[in-house]
Amino acid sequence: MTEYTITDLIAFSSQQRPAEFEAAFNNVIASRLETAINDRKIEVAQRMFNRVDQEEIDIEDTEDGEIT
């Protein structure tokens, strides 16, 4: 599969080549969507596995060490 760029979209549009424009558009959108989903997966995994235990936070936040 050919990797298209925004420049290709503009070129196909100005050359009035709708079939090529559609293929390029779908390719660009799919690529950006895949990147966004992968970035989100990484973000969620980092939050999930780097979580600080809630009890540790509560103990540090109180002056006398009691869990509230």
Helix fraction bin: over 70%
First-to-last CA distance? 58 Å
User: Which percent band covers the strand fraction?
Assistant: under 5%
Order of helices and strands: HHH
Detail the poorly predicted runs.
Answer: none
User: How confident is the prediction overall: mean pLDDT?
Assistant: 83
* Main beta sheet: none
Shape: rod-shaped
Radius of gyration from CA coordinates: 24 Å
Number of helical elements: 3
| Quaternary structure type | single chain
Q: Please identify the structural class as seen in this structure.
A: mainly alpha
- What's the total count of β strands? 0
The number of domains: 1
Task: Sum this structure up briefly.
The relative contact order is 0.09. It contains three helices and no strands. It is mainly alpha-helical and 68 residues long.
